[in-house]
Amino acid sequence: MSAAETAQPVLGAPLTKADFLTDYRLAWESRHASLAGRKEVFMGKAKFGIFGDGKEVPQLAMARAFQNGDFRAGYYRDQTFMVAIGELTWQQYFAQLYANPDAEAEPATAGRAMNGHFATRMLDDDGNLKPLVNSKNSSADISPTGGQMPRLLGLAYASKLFRQNPELHQFTDLSTNGNEVAFGTIGNASTSEGMFFETLNAAGVLQVPLLVSVWDDHYGISVPAEYQTTKQSISAIMAGLQREGEGEQGFEIFVVRGWDYAGLLDTYQRAAAVCREQHVPVLVHVTELTQPQGHSTSGSHERYKSKDRLHWEETHDCLHKLREWLLAEGHATELELDDIEKTAAATIKTARTAAWAAFFDPIKAERDEAVAMLEKLVADTGTENSLHDMVEQLKANPTPIRADIVRTLRRVLRAVRNEKRSFGRRVVQRHLEQLLAENADRYNSNLFSQSEYAVGNIEEVAASFAPDAAQVDGREVLQACFDANFQRDPSIFAIGEDVGKIGDVNQAFAGLQEKFGELRITDTGIRECTIVGQGIGAALRGLRPITEIQYLDYLLYAIQILSDDLACLQYRTKGGQKAPLIVRTRGHRLEGIWHSGSPMQMILGSIRGMHVCVPRNMTQAAGFYNTLLRSDEPALVIECLNGYRLKETIPSNVGEFTLPLGRPEVLKQGTDVTVVTYGSMCRIVMDAAKQLAEVGISVEVIDVQTLLPFDTDQLIADSLQKTNRVVFADEDVPGGATAFMMQQVLDEQGAYRYLDSQPRCLAAQPHRPAYSSDGDYFSKPNTEDVFDTVYELMSEVAPEKFPDIY
Hints:
By secondary structure, the protein is of the alpha/beta class. A 7-stranded mixed beta sheet has the order 11-10-12-13-15-14-20, with helices on both faces. Strands 2-1-3-4-8-7 form a 6-stranded parallel beta sheet, sandwiched between helices. It has a 5-stranded mixed beta sheet with strand order 17-19-18-21-22, with helices on both faces. Helix 5 (about 150-165) runs parallel beside helix 6 and helix 11 (about 335-380) runs antiparallel to helix 14 (about 425-445). Its cofactor is thiamine diphosphate. E1 component of the 2-oxoglutarate dehydrogenase (OGDH) complex which catalyzes the decarboxylation of 2-oxoglutarate, the first step in the conversion of 2-oxoglutarate to succinyl-CoA and CO(2). It comes from Hymenobacter properus. InterPro entries: DH_E1, THDP-binding, Transketo_C/PFOR_II, Transketolase-like_Pyr-bd, Transketolase_C.
């Protein structure tokens, strides 16, 4: 089925006149919502707006092909589609425009994302997945253009696993034999992003039910297609993906005009059928679309579109074309359509008014309550002159926000700080504390899981060792751990470069593909971004993926998706969705610029909302995997690249013991200096501590084990009370994770008060490590560096006992 065969489509769905008029009504409601939304921004009732005008008709056609159990990964112009599938009301649409933080009023993001960012609440109140086969599902949108594509691949890949892996057929709440289609949407300009091409290539290799629609209005903000896309057509340049015949590998590609209602209905019915039934990916290129209001409220498209283009857009507006078709086909009269348009406008006005009242009335009530308290405080303190203006300004504000209330309370309390404490002052103080707590829930909550499967709720099980336990290579500990977990839970699978046939480059999966099959242990192409995206989408659907990034340095290919999509998922949906993906990688010491990196500063700053485990050996890593695979939170596990062939004692409960996250381990007791470190540096620090003991310096060595979370019981502060001196050591650049650890210990834990000497950070050089053993020695901290740093601290304290070495 080629693009050419869709040139003159026929109506494929047996729709009635009532169906046509329903679509017409929804289309005009959506248009009026876009027009009203823009006005609300210009009136100051919302900060920014980006709308779906011009895209209404193709979204209605797509919605008619979307079934229960299907998933969407789209972008911020899909308002018509979301209303058409019944997962968005117009009042909720305006609630999001106003940033209403009530999840009941704005269920997609609880006011945390700007308008046009859609999501369905896939979790119940306890944080557990609902029966996804019974609902139409939308994964949570993100703003970065093209960023929805990697996740889309994973949503489709899950259907393949549910269909082809018999062990997963038991999960009837999550899938119906893999019949679900993952629908993606993207603007034509955003197809220039590498993530789009990487996703389509991967989908073609995997042969998964991915249906991506390109809304093509010829522009990307002000930049026309001739600067965006070769041949000005994404379907033309992707034609090589077209499969040669049924049963052959590849895509089906359809091209259809965005104002051709009958053609769109037919195209989407056929596209969804081949996708759903045959698990063949599909690209639908929807051309000749318009954007009547321009890109967003940031500017006008009259600045960059010619008069001819603007005239063409007016005559080819999909709503006008739909009206022409309905009249020409005899499905409606002029009077009927006029009445629908008028009713649609009234419907949007009612929804907008209700949404504003639901958003603003509680704030106004909070303001009035605060003003009443403040007026009493003014009367109690007798300081009318200094406080009157602040209170009156808040009282007279016609559209206050909650920040105005809290800001005024803080400034009033600041102004009366020297006054005698009164009852009124205490009332204001308590009210401020209450408001701060309420707004913390509105704007700062749900970064991590709140369910019974949160990491902190996983029962700790100690590792046990038989008296005659074998000493094995570290990789064998991991192999045994993965083997046990794959037997325990059929929803676990692993994907990555070289993970399958050879069992990963360090052999932790050696022999497991042969044992569990290619669907459980799977090789991928070299495509880190979509490896992670494949895991995100599958995890959203209830599976437990482990996605491997071969080396920590290569995480940069995927850091954007980890940061913008996975790490903030629970936060941006306020607990409405979760994706407990484990990203496995290896790094720290080896040799070479691109194989021995430790970019922890980048990681710590980018993926808050994920856990970061930095085990010093493979037994510790196994304990973290056992914990995380029983939890419902995402994590990055960074194994020590030079530790796979070091000998370790294998636990007898290698697949069962669990390690708590956020709890450091004291590797060596000491009294003079505390050295805080992690990963491969543990061995170096332990070696240095042994040498320091020989000269009379007692070092306490602490392995933090996880950087996120970090020392939740403040065990490092306890150590500093004893030693009064601290060195933070790692392999990151100066100011990286050592600075993070210092801030956590001295600032968050308040351990600065225990110090008798300047705290020291020992990091790598401010460049990537040079190749060779000498390159490693002179680029990263070594045993002698640790020795000298600690010795210098003690030399300052007791110079006679510890005279200068150099």
